[in-house]
Design goal:
There is one protein chain. The chain has about 140 residues and is α/β, with parallel strands linked by helices. It is built from five helices and seven strands; from the N terminus they run αββαβαβαβαββ. The strands form two sheets. A five-stranded parallel β-sheet has the order 4-3-5-6-7, with helices on both faces. A two-stranded antiparallel ribbon has the order 1-2. Strand 1 and strand 2 form a beta hairpin. Helix 2 packs across helix 3 and helix 4 crosses helix 5. The longest helix has 17 residues. It is globular, with a radius of gyration of 15 Å. The protein starts with a helix and ends with a strand.
């Protein structure tokens, strides 16, 4: 069942619970955040069927990005955090990625992976990555 169904009936119910920290995101928050992501991606000029890549550690925002891409009609590529920069760059190029979301803790891999994308299409979460636009 799509999260927006739960957001409509139980907006305060936890949708995501991080095992390590216990941090949560409610269905209402997931709905709002995924809408923000979809609007951001549309504002960057992405169209239905375009591809984004996600090079992130597990965070509350990971699934919000996935649902935001789905909401905007986009394809998302989930990339392993164990990739080298060159491996990640190959995936970005081969998939036709238009936007790369990356965790600051993976800055070096992300820098190499996103080298051919415009800075506005390289988005950093959880801290700064030189040459990336921060997203909060």
């Amino acid at each position: 069942m799509h999260p927006f169904v739960h957001a409509a009936s139980n907006p305060d119910r936890p949708a995501i619970i991080m095992a390590g920290s216990g941090a949560t995101m409610s269905y209402g928050e997931l709905e709002a955040r995924s809408n923000q992501v979809a609007q951001l991606l549309r504002s960057l000029g992405l169209n239905r069927g375009d591809t984004i890549s996600i090079l992130m550690v597990n965070t509350l925002d990971y699934l919000a990005i996935c649902w935001g891409a789905q909401r905007a009609g986009l394809v998302f590529v989930a990339m392993s955090t164990k990739l080298t920069g060159e491996e990640a760059a190959y995936i970005v190029t081969d998939s036709g990625t238009k936007v790369l979301f990356a965790s600051a803790s993976l800055a070096e891999t992300a820098r190499v992976a996103g080298a051919d994308l415009p800075e506005t299409h390289r988005l950093a979460l959880g801290g700064a990555i030189p040459g990336f636009t921060p997203v909060s």
